[in-house]
TrEMBL record:
<feature type="domain" description="Pyrrolo-quinoline quinone repeat">
    <location>
        <begin position="476"/>
        <end position="532"/>
    </location>
</feature>
<dbReference type="InterPro" id="IPR018391">
    <property type="entry name" value="PQQ_b-propeller_rpt"/>
</dbReference>
<dbReference type="Pfam" id="PF01011">
    <property type="entry name" value="PQQ"/>
</dbReference>
<dbReference type="GO" id="GO:0030288">
    <property type="term" value="C:outer membrane-bounded periplasmic space"/>
</dbReference>
<protein>
    <submittedName>
        <fullName>PQQ-dependent dehydrogenase, methanol/ethanol family</fullName>
        <ecNumber>1.1.2.-</ecNumber>
    </submittedName>
</protein>
<feature type="domain" description="Pyrrolo-quinoline quinone repeat">
    <location>
        <begin position="50"/>
        <end position="360"/>
    </location>
</feature>
<keyword id="KW-0479">Metal-binding</keyword>
<keyword id="KW-0560">Oxidoreductase</keyword>
<comment type="similarity">
    <text>Belongs to the bacterial PQQ dehydrogenase family.</text>
</comment>
<dbReference type="GO" id="GO:0005509">
    <property type="term" value="F:calcium ion binding"/>
</dbReference>
<dbReference type="GO" id="GO:0016614">
    <property type="term" value="F:oxidoreductase activity, acting on CH-OH group of donors"/>
</dbReference>
<dbReference type="InterPro" id="IPR001479">
    <property type="entry name" value="Quinoprotein_DH_CS"/>
</dbReference>
<keyword id="KW-0634">PQQ</keyword>
<dbReference type="InterPro" id="IPR002372">
    <property type="entry name" value="PQQ_rpt_dom"/>
</dbReference>
<dbReference type="InterPro" id="IPR017512">
    <property type="entry name" value="PQQ_MeOH/EtOH_DH"/>
</dbReference>
<dbReference type="GO" id="GO:0016020">
    <property type="term" value="C:membrane"/>
</dbReference>
<dbReference type="InterPro" id="IPR011047">
    <property type="entry name" value="Quinoprotein_ADH-like_sf"/>
</dbReference>
Length: 567
């Protein structure tokens, strides 16, 4: 027997303290002190700002700003660049990606990065004011890259989640931590990537980790104190409504997935939060979870005061293809009806009555759909799926979907939806495995196609009729942005940032950003000048949506564009 003398290695140094920008060292103006529920309700009335994740509660990703328009967009030039950079080791045996949507309030930008980074920047110059770094354990379980999709701001605070499933509030002036709450079990494989949503006196977030066999949930915290307000589980336990859609014996429900890892939308008149839920677990082995598996692959309407599900619509019952329905729920009105539009990973565009979940329309939005079919009256028929052990099955779309998590936009000016489309297939081979906590629980080996793929930015009306399509050789893997200047902005995997005519689809402007796009651009105005900001940084779960570019340069820059200033 040997004796080992352990040497005190001291304490780890926070990387944020080695940047020259220490939290509290510099102070931002108190621009978020006046941000509250009422102001976010009327976000469109101050188009110079981008106050919340989608720009407004309706999820339209539309700005009325029109200084940059179809006539002058060809003159767009870089205004400034913020280099986030990469330092040291990052958590998880996976790659990072710059996926955030920049928030802007009265000339100050708040931006999150991967691995626990948050920055406050001067939105006019790009000068960094402060930065915060959360210490994320290196061994946290992450299925799909070390990513974060954005922050929320209200009452003088910046809210964000971390990869190790924590909800944090920072002082928006200094970047110093105000409160910190844990809302997921990292030992079980839970994590967090979602941009928080402020509703009333609450900050609402969802969990990640469906690929590890966890039970998904939404959580609400008090803005001021961080006190937990409610939790909404998205898989029912025995005895609850929907439990009959899971096996009666065993614990399939307890590891059923249905994580809500994208930000929801909200209608103050219905008092409902509209959220898409993720895949069931295991992703591809349906024999261990017979039934429709509610509330996986659903659009759920949650009462924001109680956290209870009021209605649901399931897009892919008994999912065998990893078709999360986490995509945004875009709220709009037509012919006096309050509607909701949702582009699902399964390749279909769903329009629902958002007051009760009634189906209004279903149409395909991608060319190749072979996994099955959904009729206009909602009947789902599965055709190709990995049902036999060791037998490969090829299907379209692949598990990243005909549209990944990246967002569509809707312009109330044109009445059109603009969608980043991925036309890519995959082969899944069922491989049954015993459930073990924090170990990936896919139920198959998956290989996404590296050839015979395509993409597009496509425009649809609310009836599902395609109005135009801009075709690309590669899938479109980034969110789009629509503006009052009749423009649609979208980024390509190969680095180009594009501006299209919102009415015709004509490509009007293009700029090579040096790395692929997998984020959500936003637009704002400072001192009478409109800017368009887009985080650029390829990576994340690239093997799932474009494996042929897995080795492409990551990048880690925020690019900001504007028209030239008058000489």
């Amino acid at each position: 027997m040997t004796t080992v003398d352990y040497v005190d290695a001291g304490e780890a140094v926070d990387q944020g303290n080695l940047s020259g920008k220490v939290a509290g060292g510099e102070v931002a103006p108190p621009v978020t002190a006046g941000i509250d529920y009422e102001r976010i309700l009327h976000a469109r009335e101050e188009p110079q700002n981008w106050l919340t994740y989608y720009g407004a509660y309706d999820g339209q990703r539309y700005s009325p700003l029109d200084q940059i328009n179809t006539e002058n967009v060809k003159r767009l030039v870089p205004a400034w660049v913020f280099q986030a950079g990469t330092t040291g080791l990052i958590a998880g045996a996976s790659t990072y990606s710059f996926e955030a949507a920049p928030i802007v309030v009265d000339g100050i930008m708040f931006l999150s990065g991967w691995d626990g980074w948050v920055w406050a920047l001067d939105a006019k110059t790009g000068v960094e004011i402060w930065r915060y770094k959360h210490a994320v354990p290196f061994d946290v379980s992450l299925c799909c890259g070390n990513v974060n999709r954005g922050v929320a701001v209200a009452q003088g605070k910046v809210f964000f989640v971390t990869a190790n499933a924590r909800m944090l509030a920072l002082d928006a002036r200094t970047g110093k931590r105000v409160w910190d709450r844990t809302y997921g079990d990292v030992r079980a494989g839970e994590s967090a990537t979602v941009a928080p949503l402020i509703v009333k006196n609450m900050v609402i977030v969802g969990s990640s980790g469906g690929e590890f066999g966890v039970r998904g949930h939404l959580d609400a915290f008090d803005l001021e104190s961080g006190e937990h307000q409610w939790r909404c589980y998205t898989v029912p336990k025995p005895g609850e409504p929907g439990a009959e859609t899971w096996p009666a014996d065993g614990e399939a429900w307890a590891r059923g997935g249905a994580n809500c890892w994208l930000t929801g939308t909200f209608d103050p008149e219905t008092n409902l939060l509209y959220v898409g839920t993720g895949n069931p677990a295991p992703d591809f082995d349906g024999e261990v979870r017979e039934g429709d598996n509610l509330f996986t692959d659903c659009i759920i309407a949650v009462d924001v005061d109680s956290g209870r599900i009021r209605w649901h619509y399931q897009c892919t019952p008994h999912d065998l293809w990893d078709y999360d329905s986490i995509g945004e729920c875009i709220l709009f009105e037509q012919d006096g009806r309050k509607l909701l539009g949702h582009f699902d990973k399964n390749g279909y565009f769903f329009v629902l009555d958002r007051t009760n979940g009634e189906r209004v329309g279903i149409t395909p939005f991608v060319d190749r759909i072979t996994w099955g079919a959904i009729t206009r009256d909602g009947q789902v028929t599965a055709k190709l799926y990995p049902d036999k052990e060791g037998e490969p099955v090829h299907f379209y779309p692949g598990p990243a979907g005909a549209k990944e998590w990246t967002h569509a936009a809707y312009s109330p000016k044109t009445g059109l939806f603009y969608v980043p489309v991925q036309d890519t297939g995959a082969t899944a081979t069922r491989r049954r495995r015993e459930f073990k906590e924090s170990i990936p629980y896919w139920g198959a080996g998956v290989q996404v196609d590296i050839e015979d793929m395509a993409g597009s930015v496509s425009a649809f009306d609310a009836n599902g009729e395609e109005k135009w399509r801009w075709r690309n050789e590669l899938p479109m893997c980034a969110s789009v942005l629509a503006t009052g200047g009749d423009l649609v902005f979208a980024g390509e995997p190969s680095g180009e940032f594009d501006a299209f005519d919102a009415r015709t689809g004509e490509l009007l402007w293009q700029f090579q950003c040096g790395s692929g796009h997998h984020s959500s651009p936003t637009t704002y105005m400072v001192d009478g000048r409109q800017y368009v900001a887009v985080p650029v940084g390829w990576g994340g779960w690239a093997e799932g949506f474009l494996p042929g570019m897995l080795g492409a340069g990551h990048g880690s820059a925020l690019m900001v564009f504007a028209l030239p200033e008058p000489v």
